[in-house]
Fold each of these.
Amino acid sequence: MESNLRADLFDPAALASLGHIEVVARWIVDGFLSGLHRSPRKGFSVEFADFRPYQPGDDLRYVDWKIAARADRWVVKQYEEETNLRATLVLDVSKSMEWRSRPALLTKRVFAEQLVAATALLLLRQRDAVGLIRFDDAVRTSVPPRARTTQWRRVIAALAEPAGGRASDLAAAIAQASRLVTRRGMVMLVSDLLVDREPVIAAVRGLRAAGHDVIVFHVMDPAERDFGLEGEAQYADTESSLAVPATASDVRTAYQATVAEVVGEWRDALAVVGASYELVITDQPYAVPLRKAFDARQRRP
Amino acid sequence: MSLLAPLYLLLGAAAGIPLLLHLLRRNIGTRVDFPAARYLQRAEQEHSRSLRLRNLLLMLLRVLLILTLALAAAQPFVAGMGAGHGPTAVAVVLDNSLSTTAMSGGVPAFAQLRDAARRLLQSSGAGDHLWLVSANGRVRGGTKDALVAELMRMAPEQDAGDLPLAVRRAAAAVQGSALPSRVVAVATDGQRSAWVSSSPVDVPLALLTPRGDPPRNRAVLAVDATPARWTPRGTINARIDATDSVGFRVLLGSRTLARGAVARGEPVQLSVSPPERGWQAIRVELEPDDYAADDVRYAAAWIGAPPGVMVDPSAGSFATTAVNTLIADGRAGTGSDVRVAAADAVAALPALMTPPGDAVRLGAANRALARLGVPWRFGAVDTLPVAARGTRMDGIAVSARYRLVREGVGATDTLATVAGEPWIVSGPGYVLLASRLDPAATQLPIRAAFVPWLADMIATRLAAPTGDAGAPIQARAGAAIRIPAGADALENGAGTRRAVTGDHINAPDERGVWFILRGAKRIGAVVVNAPPEESSLARWPAEALAPRLAGARGRPSVTADAWVHDTFSSGSRRPAVTPLLLLALLLFAAEAIAVRTTRPTAA
């Protein structure tokens, strides 16, 4: 991929069609970081470690010009990046996440996996420890947080495991996350939030009480936000026996109003317990949720 | 309201579809995966009232939309609704009788009536059924354009036509139509004499008559040239109708015989002995006025030397006296051109023959008839008193006669009958009476009409050359007439020639004297005049004529606009398709607005 193109701004479905999740996640993170470098922020929090002789290709910003003036030799300053964050990515792989409203879109699960993979890579590049929990009605995969360079491959391998295809139990997954992350850290929940709100809020409250930062990515298909379907049908929940007869054109506006209420309720309830909330639509580029994740990381000491 | 295509109302059953969908939507069979169904359920619960109202509104709009479209497809016609007019069966009766050639306001009445008829036809719609009926009762059907073209080709006829017949045929035409509205539209000059015998028709009728009074008319009502064959003396009688004195001129051929002025009601009588010979045209004309058709009237006469008549004593004393009177008057001469005798005494034709005075001679008489080629024989004696019937013969008593028995073939005319049997017959070169010319057998010889009748028989039946018409044929324009056998052409005074074949033809449409030609020889004349009744231009008022034509369903008009309006409003039903389609469009727009822009109220 050309360096002047930012993959994090691409259409997710188009991007996913270009390669494996591992490759695509790298493009996303590279694109994201290249955009970041052009911003006023200059980089991650780092500490000086040592000098080494200058080699062609080294960034001239890291040349120690005082030594060069005094000793007439070029040395480059080396830094040791901080690794004081432990992040746990909690991914919902329930049956409802397998849905997409039209073939041109990614399913919510695939979109969420790309987002998790890119976020994990972004954090690991900062020497943060990253763990992964995949859940449906129970925790299906648990990768403890590590900062090793091989950790990302473990995360990718875990993402490749088959999904459970059952209902969600987000509260249980959060409880599992709290057990995995013993030190204070960051917990990023990626789910369609088609669950009862109160148990989830209670679980998030527990995480917050333990000192964790919590950011919730609410993944939605565009049709789940706008109800852009047509016709009259029994609209059936994929995880329960609920089926609602409706004519799309008749209830669309009422549905949109309800979704806006639901989003507001989640945002308000999470805000009350000190968690961040971000609505993510599966036809939007990854740049926005990545930025949220990055900002959440930057707020950590 | 009536429907042109009522079967399309069945489409209204489709209105049940949105109704059923509305009622049965809880049983919708199609199942669609939608993980956020809980949001949908919550939306329906929270907005149930507004959604119910909205669904009800949508259902009503859709049902109404379908019903409206179905009704529009059925093509309803509603009184007082819609634009234009409904499909109407219209038969336009255009009075093109001779009287419509009278000028009115500088324009012939016919031109005004035809223009009004053209406007009416052009106001018709694609769904109308149209007919055009002329004064002679001829019915033409077709499209608007075809009938307008036909209308513009129409010209005034040369006679009165039969307008009541035309209206009846027009009524029959529209009554045979399946269209709901049927109208007869009559454009006429309202001439009283044309509408004497009309009886109301059972369809709405829109009547147009010209506004105002007819023009003052001076007319030559009749011209008579007597006798039919001048020898060579004859008399011309003319009857002139005028409100005051009027100048006239009498012509024989192209020669003026007399001119002068005649007072109102005064007859014109002119006795002449002209030098011309053969068939001649006689013309009496007045100073022109606004109605030229009756300013000239024609007659014809054959002019020649008087025939020589030889009367035999066997014909009786009354016949002898009558012939002597004709000779003394110069209407006959002495000679053997024509014989008057008892049949048994006749050796050659032409002859006027009576039965023999002695019954013993009856056989000889019949043998003589057979020898002469006369296809009649004297039969049994009948002495029952009866009255004769025939021209100049009505009421003449007959007390003794021989029954005439037809034997053989040959052309023959029955000039008079008694008890339904031939009494006087005629054929080529003969006139045969079944009674003696004796008061003991018949009153004919002692009646005043006897001598003129005898003169006519001699002049027209016996003295005329073989094959000659004898007397001029009076005919109306276009009427069927019978002409002498062997005629091959008609020719008028202007030299216009028209070939004919056979002995039954239609009289020419052009008024005047048409000579019957056999080769270059004139053998008779056809006189074509305007019908005398067409000279009376008195009109019915429209308000009086309309009820005569259609009772209470007749609508009088004096302007073309009102007439056209009355014609197409007589049915009073107009198509409601356009308003219904507009209503459907409004319903469709309302449905679209309800679907797209209605905001539910949060519960």
Amino acid sequence: MAETKYDVIVVGAGAGGGTMTRVLADKGIKVALVEAGPMLDPQRDFKTNKWPHDYGHRGAEEGGKAYFGKGQAYGFMIAASGGWQLEGEPYTTAPGTKFEWFRSRVVGGRTNHYGRMSFRFSDLDMQPYSRDGIGWDWPITYEDLAPWYDRAEEFIGVTGTQEGIRSAPDGKFHAPPEPKAHERLIRAAGGRLGIPFIANRRAVITRSINGRLPCHYCGQCGRGCLTESNYSASQVEIFPAMKTGNVTLITDAMVRKVEVDAQGLARGVVYVDKAARTERRLEGRAVVLAASACETARLMLNSKSSHFPDGIANGSGLVGRYLMDTVGFSLGGILPALENMPRYDTDGFGGAHLYAPWWLWDDHSKLDFPRGYHIEMGGGFRIPSPGSFTAIARQAGYGAEIKRRVRELYGSFVGLSGRGEMIPNNQSYMDIDPDTVDRWGIPVPRFHFSFSDYEWRQARHMERTFRDLIEAAGGTVLGIGNTARERTGIAVPGSIIHEVGTARMGSSPNTSVLNQYCQAHEVPNLFVADGASFVSNPDKNPTLTINALSWRTAEYLSEEMRKGNV
Amino acid sequence: MSDKSGFVRIDTLSRRDALRRIALALTAGGIAGTMRRADGTEVHEQVEQERTLQGEYKVKYFNEHEFKTLERLSELIVPEDEGGPSAREGGAPEFIDLLASENAELAAIFTGGILWLDHRANQSHGHAFAECTAEQQDEMLVSLVEAERTETGPDTEWQTEEHARFSVFGVRKPSDLRRGLVFFDWARRLVVDAYYTSPAGIKDLGFLGNASHSEYRVPGQAIAHVVERGPFRDI
């Protein structure tokens, strides 16, 4: 028997679960928010404004484990709680598959440290099949989603400028900070090549909203922000929602299964209380899965019953299918125009102040790949950390020459990263490994993944474009791409951490798991509020769309509850 | 307030106070943007004050000769010049000792490497490395760097693994210098890291970030520098 009955059980306290919880709690709906990781205490857990020399290990971590590839993913200062491997929580890959799965088990999930790039999908992104006959259309249009982007942007706060670019719809923006010197140089190079660089759109506020302070430009969003000047589901949504008194947060709770009643409706969840190593139950009128695309699909596949022998709401057999990540490719260079640069604070608002949205959206007939990518940028005088000058020192040899070269070259490196759309395919999916369980005895995901020529050709276009940009800016490419890298020239699948699409939405129960409100076709009181619902994975980082869709689903769910349908 | 590493750990409460002051300054300044940089750097001043409480570092792992060798290597690899002190003053020997005390693999790289270096110094000069003259020490490191340039090459694997932060330098051709080259690469890497992450190294770099501002501005002279040296008349 359940210990308590709630209105809605939300599984996962990240972007989707945070938005869901806040919207429902604000309406007076009683929510149990179940999180596999611990509570977050920003004052204790965030390393805002720390220096490497505040630590004896300077950021190389105990015993210098970062030097051996065993440090915290993305560095010691990052706010991630989790990483590429979690002790006692394995996942497996099919022979021939490489897949990296980043999990952040903590209240706020990956939103505590993520890049905060916040781009709207466009009308081109929502109906791609209608346009080029590849992939699938979403069951909703950009017009359906736009009001929810408006709300999400106004609530979480996103920077940007009105540009009128069809592939990158404008939104409700905070004023962006001005571009840095090296970004202006790349923008000028882009101008020569016909690539427009515009103000970056990041979930950072530059004016106070909802009691949150504006950005103070320390450039450390990834460490977590003690002034709440960027979006994290923990500080911006979950903590305020808890003040309503309508949220019961249950941490260190690993959900094993969604249970169904005699009619095949979701009755609640079974979870492992990790501290007590005890199984517990929760009951609710509705269950919302927001555990991240692959955890949500794992949970659905593991939720077997007489009604659903292949996993809950999986009559279509599509749970776990059409897994996508982003096509990632990076290239950097040294720009002589930046050498010996007068020093200034280039930290800014925690990411590049400019980016290039996909600019050839109307030229695909001339390209050998069907979908686009956007360009992100790195550079400037970065805070020194272990490894910052290893390459320069090696090149300089030893002695005074090291110091001279470091002074000269500090801040002259610019990196460009492409983030492109992957077309969903039959070879990329996850299922449950029949032989492996985690430390709680829960069967784990097994990944199968393959990029197609669409992605390889797109990555080669990125490589040519980035080389052209660096050279147009007068620079020299480092780590030159060549034919030998043809099969290693895309970031390892999963490593961009935009994995989505394992329980896609659609209008037909035969070809999709969820309807347009992210409600399971087969289980009307089961919803999904994370990236699992994505039908495609445009070149737009997924979090803002997860926020918008989750908000839309929350409004629909509360209305259905009011009507007595759920 | 020292932790076991011998470095001061910032007291959480005082940091919280300082951050509260930043918050107040930002609230008061707010959109009007009247916050002074000094308010924002409050945290760092406190850190500096607390750091002066740091006591003498007690060597945890290396013996006296090994530590002395590390001190000398730190002075040679990143020497004092007009821009700043040597990596010895930047805390490199202490940094390496701390990590070695916690990591047997790293410790073996350094103890074995120092023995290799001493053996070579004994063969050539009849003294351990630390006892050689500055000219002899320089000559030995120059020959290592020369060998490194002809005998090693980059491992390019890291270019496609975006999350692999630290690249590895592989030895292409085995030779009697192999052991020394691997050691020297480690020594240089850690000495350089220790220096540039130290307050002296940060000053040397001229790093001005990790600060707080009520608005973000790019100085005209930085833009002028790029225009003057770059291919575009206007950026």
Amino acid sequence: MNTAFQGNEFFLDPSRCIGCKACVQACAECGTHRGQSMIHLEYVHRATGVQTAPVVCMHCEDPTCARVCPADAIKQDDHGIVHSAAKPRCVACSNCVIACPFGVPKMKVELDLMMKCDMCYDRTSVGKKPMCATVCPSGALYYGPRETIGNLRRETPVNEFQFGRQTVRTKVNIMTAPDVKALPFEVLDFLPWEGKDFDPFELSRPGAPDAASAAVWDDAGLGPRCSGNCTCH
Amino acid sequence: MRLPNRSAAIAGMVLTLGSAAAIFLGSHGLRDFDPALTGYAIGALMAAFAVGYRFLIWAQRPPARMYFKRGLELVFRPAGAAALAEKAPRQSMPLPHGAGTLGYALARNFVAQEFIRRRGGLRWIMHLCLSGGCTLAFAITFPLVFGWIHFESFADNAEMYRVAAFGVNVDSFSVHSFKAFVMFNLLNISALLVLVGLVLAAFRRLTDPGERATQSFAEDIVPLLLILAVTATGLALTVSYKFLAGRDHAIWAIVHMVSVVSLLLYIPFGKLFHMFQRTCSLCVSRYKRVGATGLRAHCRRCGEDYTSAMHVADLKTVLDELGFDYRFSGPQGEVHYQDICPACRRGLLALNQGRTIGR
């Protein structure tokens, strides 16, 4: 355990992602992931562009997922790693899936279990790199000493996020402009249709998955578009 | 100094006094109570207090409290369920309510433990052996310790045994019968079941890379060692009286009692408490069934249906109670981050990062 991390940190730079999905494949090979890929490779706006972004668990200092868990199933260890739900305890309620500000936890419906990125704990705890950072060809996912990335990049790492009124500090860093101390998060600027004559549900893909009951990008988990018992019709 | 939680202390006291009353009444005013088992009875009463206390501490936390509250509302008040699901048409509520659904969930999740089978076949067999063996052993020993069931030989025939439950004779059998063999060896049978489970658990914990990386001694190994201690010392008692003419029986009896009481007292504080925490899963499965047919939540960014409106509303309440405030406000209006689906939150991370670095 004393070889853990060895001064290495995780640095995320979504803007460098080229969408190769090497991280998705590599992630499944991690011992603690049991053949399941835990990383998200998100199309930022599939309808209008090809921009992709990898999302790993940011390992919050005060993890919202763990705090909203009704069964005390999500534990943070002494290194600050927030682990997948403890198998005996997880009741598959999806509170963590819906509450995580980064949209990280995945509900594995077939296992009745929440699983998430644990920074490849079987590897990082013995001084190795996480699988995704090992294979990322473009440096969107980087794991190593802070000085090294400081010498390599124009951007600087921060580990603080401002979600409206909520400040979230994380173990994982994100690369931002040099003068930024906490990544400001804006949502209202990215709601293109609000206040305009535009039907948001035109964006809705038929058969889109329910985030609470399926891996979000996994087409195999597609369910009915909508129950019909809502105001959208 | 933190004061003890009052309602939790009351719950612990109620459970302890209830158990004590059940011992007193069930043993015919202690007439059928076996004094040799007093240590076990005291250990059980102490564990009852700890379990009651710990359960209430846990159930009072905002997320657990919300599920228990909703679970009870949805099971016992179908009409209230419709109100919770907000404007959901009454005819769309899933049937049957209450006992039918609860019975099904109990059989599927607690008896068959079907969800563990889906996580792994060997893991399922291991858990069935451990939980089945322990449940069988407790189902035999608790009634014996509490004096609810006791065996006595006939006054005129020492080879015939009578079984009395709550002071009423319910059965009699010859000590040479097959029934006697099974009855006298049920604890040994449960011990063998548990041993199989322990061997499988040890194999997993020694060979599975994922388990080896994440397991901790206090959380994962101590409960197995405690169960092993109870099983091994229990079998030692059988070996002592069957094969060694009772040699060291008195010592093994004390060691066994200490191991059982240690296990009982460990239950509320460690991994084994999940047997009580899983009651929450009954509320969750009901909550999800109602949520699936009730009003749905659509993401304010992409419009997709990502969970039930009830779930989003309840989580906002829970987050407020926990001291999190994910509300955004600006000239354009207000939005709570719970109204944005997880996929859009991931996209927004990239969009916001891109904006700060001008990409």
Amino acid sequence: MPAAQETIRQVHKIDVDQYKYGFETKIETEKAPKGLNEETIRFISERKRESGWMLEWRLQAYRRWLQMQEPRWARLSYTEINFQDYYYYAAPKSQIEPKSLDKVDPELLATYEKLGIPLKEQEILTGVRKQGERSELDSNIYASDRVAVDAVFDSVSVITTFKEELARAGVIFCSISEAVRKHSELVKKYLGSVVPIADNFYAALNSAVFTDGSFVYVPKNVRCPMELSTYFRINERNTGQFERTLIIADEGAYVSYLEGCTAPQRDENQLHAAVVELIALEDAEIKYSTVQNWYPGDKEGRGGIYNFVTKRGDCRGNNSKISWTQVETGSAITWKYPSCLLRGDNSRGHFYSIAVANGHQQIDSGTKMVHLGRNTSSRIISKGISAGFSENTYRGQVTAHRRAANARNFTQCDSLLIGNDCGAHTVPYIEAKNATAQFEHEATTSKISEDHLFYVMQRGIQEEEAIALIINGFVKEVIQELPMEFAVEAQKLIGISLEGSVG
Amino acid sequence: MTVSEKVALTQAETEIINNFIALKGKLPQRGLLLETARKAAMDAFYKHGLPSRRMENWHYTDMRTQLICIAPYSSKSGGALAAPLLSRSIVLGLINGQAVIPSHKAGKKMPATPFGALLANGEAELPQDFANDNVIAQLNTALVSDGWKLDFPENTSSDKIIELQNVQNGAQSHVRFPVIIGSNANVMIIERQIGNDEESFISSVSNLDISEGAQVSWIIIRTRGMTSTELNQFNARLGKNVALKLYIINAGSRFLRQEINVNLDGMGADFQLRGINLLSGKTHTDTTMVVRHLAKDTTSTEIIRNVAIDEARGVFQGMIRVAKEAQKTDASMICNSLILSDSAEFDTKPELEIFADDVACGHGATVAEIDRDQLFYLMARGIPEAQARAMLVKAFVGELIEGFDRKEMGEVLHILLDQWLQVHI
């Protein structure tokens, strides 16, 4: 059955030529010399005022990277990336590291204002300006007084808001560069412990040249008092952005974190290769949400961000929980599989995803749930929509190891095609290595529970309406996983129904 | 730089290449076309070697490590054909890779020719191009020595069932079954892969070309001994309104790769697959399927049920491809596995690749152990645990072989399942 009209309208509303964040900030920048070699890495490390161990770590990753080959197994086609053609470090001249607000270049503040991200705590707290006035763009979660923001501009963090308030609760929230200097014990202990330096080609590259990102540590039994978020902005031409994020929830802690990203409209393909590591110790919970809205390229498929991302959460302690929620609408190329290692007994991993591909976008995304501990459970709900000339692939792996007794997984992935020049693909890998594993993988709307349908129809509702009702319930389930304030952004997608799903 | 240039030949690869060299000029063939086909096949094998898990199609089956050595050719001819499963069927047999000409009259009336004879007089066709990971076509083309060619004319509607028997008692052989089915024909073919417990190495390729409106049932039953290695490829092209039902029951072999390639070429074509894998011992069984929906209004349903015990490892890779032209496709694929021992493993990869926007495709996969509630229910009624388990396993797989037009076929298959369950559960 073809897609519903309402859905088509909503998807067109976020088509590639509707990109609203494509403006450029004119600002003087300092860049590392073009290209990548050990000197580039020394340059970055020096600018970040890192100590020797960090430089060694980077160099080790670089040497491993030199020996690795670019992965080509994903369903993505793009011309070869010339890694020597990028600048690996670009920072506003005025801004080598985060500063206090009054010292930040007003041009930068204006950029974030324009993106709808106010960085002035006072204004946010006193509500000097109402949300609606703050930005000409759709306002969003960042405008809330319950959200702390780390604003990353090209290779540096500009400012981190609400640091003091968070510090009072014992929560460390700062840029990773700052953490490397000020909390080196924690960084040393956890960095690379989930995604080892040579985990894959892009992770190795990131380990060598990562420039900024966020660091979060929530101490024992602390429930982080506000939403944390990072806003990534690529601005400079020909640069690569290599964000590195590390989040640690100590025993019994809870944190919810949101990441957003945009970039100017350009004909070139800029590179974004991030690594995100989450560590949840005993009884801890981490909720990680992403709104990925990098520049997707134009109608003809020129330009757009190449987004190669390694995201992995480690449920290290018993009874820990990690959930990934992602709304993917941007990037020319997306290669991204937020995963959970369910190491602790009774640990849980969730993955909720909505991926919309328009124009010539190519998405190869999904998740990995690796069941290692006993009584672990995971849940995957993925919704992919392709329109225009795009290709949208769900690639997911669920593995239960020998000792993962009573592992449980439920997977549901649905795809929808709008038009006849795009493709939707599903590539699940389901590996059961013990007798007590219980996996369920299903797709398509026809899998709606007969009982539910019967129940609704019995009350006099026509079948089609009944299906719509049930599906909407399901869509909301994904949206609900996002932080509440963020629902505005997601609201756009809520109209997309699963009617016409092809499997 | 390709992988094969970097790595040394494995023992199995060396043995295969040596076999080809040793058999040069001794395999039946006539004419340049066959000679170049065989040479091209061996060149492709030499270039790419046995597939490793680095190839996506072989993700769970690394032949470089799975295939340690190859059973050698043997001159001793032994064994006999088995009694047919259904009394009325016509047996077309192969013993250790050599066609056995049926003696009774019915057989002579059949449009069947030994493939070896066709090779020898140059009337056989062999493929000339080989994908780098299509090792089965490479090996089979290079080394094929016999088989049966079947040719069913239009409107054939016989109550005679053909039973192809590939009996392999040790050693090595490579056979081929080209099958042409005329329009509106109605045929049922049983392919039995059987043999004793001696170590053997077999490749078997069936190519079906089915014309408009024909109805075909093809049943593959594999009960060969637990030391055999088999590479099997089932290829079919379905014309307009063709209905093909393929049943596969695997209950043997140490190593098996069963490939299924089905092209739904004509409007309204329908493909049904029912696969049962009964896996025991220390074995590896891989079913890899690609169904291509190439025309409008085509339908397919694939159901695979697996039972794994001991240290058995099973693999199902299924791919449904829906071309841009194939609007209104309705396809669904489901793979259910029952793992009954902690050392058994089942890996599933049910893929969809869709390029048309008005279709319904579903896929599903489940892995589970025996439902405790169901077990309790039966045991509460005084049924001993072992028997209750067997009943539940039987119900799980037995469902797939219901609904045969010919009742006796279903009965035979049920007996087969019961025998396996009795020994293993």
